[in-house]
Automatic annotation (TrEMBL):
Signal peptide: none annotated. CDD domains: HTH_ARSR. Pfam families: AsnC_trans_reg, HTH_24. This is Lrp/AsnC family transcriptional regulator. Keywords: DNA-binding, Transcription, Transcription regulation.
Length: 146
């Protein structure tokens, strides 16, 4: 599907607020609500729009720490780790990366003691490095037309 300028405008609206109505999006982009609905459905079917999610503030629900943890897997431990990481409630995002480390995870934790026990679970799979996140500089930035 060719993502035309109108579809990009719809995507921009959805990235700003996915809860706004198709009628509201239509007013912003200059088409009818049914036309917006049809375009959104087509973009969902093609995998351009993948999810409609609610972002929750970890701090407001009791998590005091947010961290990035990289892991350089020990020989033979990467595949088992790739399965295990899916079971950790602390992991918000996990990426397999190039470079010296194999994995980078974004995690949320209750406190330093929780961080320590979480790292204890990881070190059987490889060498870990942790960076505490102080604040977001850019957060969920909209994807724009190339």
């Amino acid at each position: 599907m060719n993502i035309d300028n109108l579809n990009w405008k719809i995507l921009r609206c959805l990235q700003q607020n996915a809860r706004q109505s198709n009628a509201e999006i239509g007013r912003q982009v200059g088409i009818t609500s049914p036309a917006v609905s049809e375009r959104i459905k087509k973009m969902e079917d093609l995998g351009i729009i993948q999810n409609h999610i609610t972002l929750i503030s970890p701090f407001e629900v009791g998590y005091q720490l947010k961290a990035l943890i990289t892991l350089q897997a020990f020989m033979g431990k990467l595949k088992p780790f790739l399965e295990k990481v899916k079971t950790f409630d602390e992991v918000v995002n996990c990426y397999r990366i190039t470079g010296n480390e194999n994995i980078v995870m974004e995690v949320i934790l209750k406190n330093q003691k929780h961080l320590e026990s979480f790292i204890d679970q990881l070190i059987v799979y490889g060498e870990c490095k942790t960076q505490i996140i102080l604040s977001h500089v850019v957060k969920n930035n909209a994807i724009k037309k190339l």
